[in-house]
Design goal:
The structure is a homotetramer of 258-residue chains. With 258 residues, chain A is of the alpha/beta class. The first copy, chain A, has helices at 23-26, 44-57, 82-102, 114-122, 124-137, 152-159, 193-206, 231-246; strands at 4-11, 32-36, 60-64, 109-110, 142-145, 164-169, 208-210, 216-218, 223-226, 250-251.
C-alpha cells in the first residue's frame, strides 16, 4: 500500500497591493493551502482569488487564523482571554468559509498562524479556545498539530475526538523533544538542498529524522510544510514533490485519505 | 387573517470597549436584528454575544455589512470596484454566519449598512455586487430593500428570484418618491411620539403614509426599523410594538411568515 | 507657601462615532489632560477638538500613547521589541504634537496608557524605549511615573535627567509597596465619596495614605488622576477639586510649577 | 547659472513585513523622499528607518499623507469632510515630523498621495483642507503641485503665500492641458528608456515637452518624480540622474535652492 503525504504551504498572505509568496506558482505544487483570513494577513479580494484557484486545482483548503495584528504579521505574542481567542478564530474561519461556500466547497483543516500557533501548543487556554471554536463550527475539520509534547492543541482536539494531522518541516532542524530548533541557533534552517530533499523523503518513507544533537527520532507526519517566498524555495519545493512521487509516495490532499 | 410585521434594529454596533445602542434591552423588543460584522462596527466578542442572545430569544438574524471604514462608521462614501464590494460583503456575511453555525442557527437576511446601503439603491455596480455575494453564499436569504424607485438592490434581487423585504421607518419623513427626507431638512425626523406611534400603525394596518408635502402614498412594509440608542427611543420602540399588538398585528420574525 | 497639585484625567478616548468620558465637562475640572493619540483610542478629529479646548482653557496637554490594539483598548499585553515600542511611542507623540503646533502650543507631559503603562514600570526594555522616544523628541517633557519600586520608567527618566511627576489615585487602594490593589480584590476601588475626598486631601496636604493592610505610608504626588466616565465620577471629581481649593491647595497645571 | 532640479520618489511605502520599492537603493539616487505616514502605507519602524537614512544621505524629506485606507493603498476615493481631511493630514504630518525632530531635522515638503492627491487638484474643499493643515503646522513647508489648470492645491497654497514646487513625470505622457494621460489609454506610460531619458533632459533643460497629441508645451518643473519598484525602473532612474548631471544640471534637494 502506498504511503500518503499531503504537501501544504502558507498562502494568500498578501494584503491589498502587497504580495508575499508566489501564490500562483505554489498552487501548482501543494495539495493543501493554509489561507490567511484577514487578521495577520490576507484581505477579501485575495481570499476569493485563492479559494477560486484551489477549487480549480483540487487543493484542500485550510483556515490559517492569526492574532489581530497586521503590522506585526501575527508574530508578536498577545495576551488574550479565552473568549477573545475563541471569537477571533471563529470569526476568521467563518469569513474564509464564506468564500468556500460560494463555490460549493468545504473547508478541510485549520492551522493557527505564527505566535497564535506557538501558544496553541504550550498554553492550555489558547489551545482549548481554538479547538472549541473549530469544533463548534464543524467537528469534522482536521486540526494541524506538531509532534512536540506537550501539544495542548492536540490534547484538546483528541478530547473532542477530532481528526488531527501532524505537520513536519522539510528544512527546519528538530530538537530531541520534537520541537523546532530556534531560528537564533546556527543550523536551525537546513540550507543544503540535497539534504532537505533526502531528509524529507526519509521522514515520509522511513519515519525517521536525525535531530540537531544527532539523535534518531521516529517521526510520523501527515503534511509536509513548504515555503514559496523565494524562487529558490519554490524550485526546492518542486524537487521535493517530484522526489516523493518518484519514490512511490502518494502526494494528495489530506481530506482524500486521512 | 392577521397582518404580519417584523420589527428590526441595527444592533451589535459597539467595538471593543465602546458601546452604542442598549443592545440588551432592544433585544426584548425586536423580532429581527441587523448585526454589524466587524467592518464599520462590531467585533468578534460582540458578534458572539449578540448571536447567543438572539438565539435564546428566537430573534431573526441579519448581516449588516458595511464599508471597511471604522473611524467613519461606514457613513462616508468609498469608491470601490465590483470585486471589492462583492468580497467585502461575502467576507462579512461569512464571518457572522460562523457564529450562527456554531449555535446551529441560520442567517435570515442581509441589509447593507450606511453609505453602502445608500449606494446599493442607486448604483448598479454596487447593487449587483452585493446581490451576487448574498446569492452565492445562500440564495434563500432575504434582502432588505427600500420602496424608492429605482432601487437597484431590489432589481438585482428580483432578477435572481430572491426574497426581498421592504423596510419602513417609524420616525422618518418620506418624500413623494418614497425616499427619506434628508436629515438636513427640517421635519425629516418626527419627534412627536404619538405621531410616530400612529403613523407606524397606519403604515402597517392601512398601508398609507403622508409625505412631507402632504401627499398620501400607498406603502407596504415588511419590517419596521426602530432605534435604541437613547432611553427615549427605546421606550418609544416598546410603545410602538405594544400598540401594534393591541391592534391585532402579528409581530414576528420575517423568516416565520415572509 | 501653598501646596501645588495638578489634576489630570484620561481624555479624548473616543473613536469616530464612539464616545467614552464626558470629555467636555471634565475639561472644566482638570488642569492637565492625558490625550489618546490614535492607537488604543482617539482619532484625528477628536484630537484636534481636544487640543483646541485645552488651549482655550489653559490646560496642560499630555500624550497618552498606547499599544496598537484598538479593539483591546490597549489593555492587553503585547510582546513588542525595543524598536517597535520606541517607534510606536514617537509616532504617537509626534501626531498629537502636530495639533498642538498648529495652535502654537507645546506638549507638557507623556503618560503611557494601559498595559504599555504597566509594562513601563516593570520591564526595562519597555521603559527604556519609551524614555528614549520621549527624550529624543523633547527632553524637557515631564514623564508621569508611579511611586512603586521598581519603576523602571522613573529609573530611565532620571538617568536622562528628565523631570518626572508622580501620579496618585483618588479612589484606588494602595498595597504596602505603593502598587495599586488589583481590581480583582475586594476593596480595590474606594466607593465611599467622603472617604475618597478626605483621602485625596490627606495625600496632598499631609503626604500620608493608609494602605489596604492598614499601614501608613508617606506619599508625595504631583498629579491626581480622576475619571469622568460616569456622572457620579464627574461630580466626585468636582467635589475633590473644590475641597482642595477650599483647603488652600493651589490646583494648577504641572507645567506652571513643577 | 546652472539649472536646478530635484529628483524625488515615493518611498517608505512598505507595511510591517511587506515591502514595495527598493527603498535603500532609491535613496542613493533621489535628492528628496516622499515618505508614507502610516495611513495608506508605512509604519512607525519603517518611518524611523527611512528618516535616519535620509538624514545620513542629506536627502530632503516630504510627508506623503494619504486616505485612511490601507487595503486600498489610498487609491480609492473617499468622501471626507473638510474637518476629516484637515485632521488626517495634520496627524500624518505630525507623526512623520516626530521622527525628524528626534534627529534634529526638519520636514522639507508635503505631497498628498494617490487619490487624496488627485482630489487635491480638482476639489476645492480637499485642497483648502490640505493647505490649511500644512500651513497651520509650518507655513514654510513646500507644497508639491502639478502643472494642470485648475490645480486648487496650488491656488490655495498661493493664497497663503506658501512655496510650491511643480512635479514633472519622466515616463508619463501629458495631455494638452498638462494633465497625465490616463493609464487606461495606450501610450500613457513611455517604455522606451532612451525616450524617457531624453524627454526628461529636454523638460528640464529646455522646458519643453511633446504631448500625446504631438503638441509642444512649455513646462517648468522643480522636481522629477521617479519610481523604484522594479530593478528596471531603478536602473532607468540612475541613468536619468547621470544624464542630467552630465549635461550640467545641478541635481539637489529643493530645500537647498527653491
Amino acid at each position: 500500500m502506498a504511503i500518503n503525504i499531503d504537501i501544504c504551504s502558507d498562502l494568500g498572505e498578501g494584503f491589498g497591493r502587497y504580495k508575499l509568496a508566489n501564490d500562483d506558482k505554489m498552487l501548482d505544487i501543494v495539495t493543501s493551502a493554509n489561507l490567511a483570513c484577514g487578521f495577520h494577513a490576507g484581505d477579501p479580494c485575495t481570499m476569493k482569488k485563492m479559494v477560486e484557484l484551489t477549487f480549480e486545482k483540487g487543493i484542500g483548503v485550510g483556515a490559517h487564523p492569526g492574532f489581530p495584528d497586521r503590522v506585526g504579521f501575527g508574530r508578536r505574542n498577545m495576551d488574550l482571554s479565552y473568549e477573545e481567542i475563541y471569537t477571533d478564530v471563529l470569526y476568521q474561519i467563518g469569513a474564509l468559509s464564506g468564500f468556500l461556500q460560494a463555490k460549493g466547497a468545504n473547508l478541510q483543516h485549520v492551522i493557527p498562524h505564527g505566535q497564535l500557533g506557538n501558544m496553541a501548543q504550550k498554553n492550555e487556554t489558547y489551545a482549548e479556545a481554538i479547538i472549541n471554536a473549530i469544533y463548534d463550527f464543524d467537528p469534522s475539520l482536521i486540526v494541524f498539530v506538531q509532534p512536540v509534547t506537550p501539544c495542548y492543541l492536540k490534547t484538546f482536539a483528541e478530547k473532542k475526538e477530532m481528526k488531527t494531522a501532524t505537520v513536519i518541516f522539510a528544512d527546519r532542524a528538530y530538537n530531541d523533544d520534537y520541537s523546532l530548533v530556534s531560528r537564533k541557533i546556527e543550523g536551525s534552517v537546513i540550507t543544503d538542498e540535497n539534504v532537505v530533499v533526502n531528509r524529507s523523503l526519509r521522514m515520509i518513507t522511513k519515519n525517521k529524522v536525525t535531530t540537531i544533537t544527532g539523535k534518531e527520532l521516529t517521526i510520523k507526519g501527515d503534511t509536509l510544510l513548504l515555503h514559496g517566498d523565494t524562487n529558490g524555495s519554490m524550485l526546492l519545493a518542486k524537487k521535493i514533490k517530484e522526489t516523493l512521487i518518484a519514490n512511490g509516495v502518494n502526494v494528495a490532499p489530506l481530506g482524500k485519505w486521512l
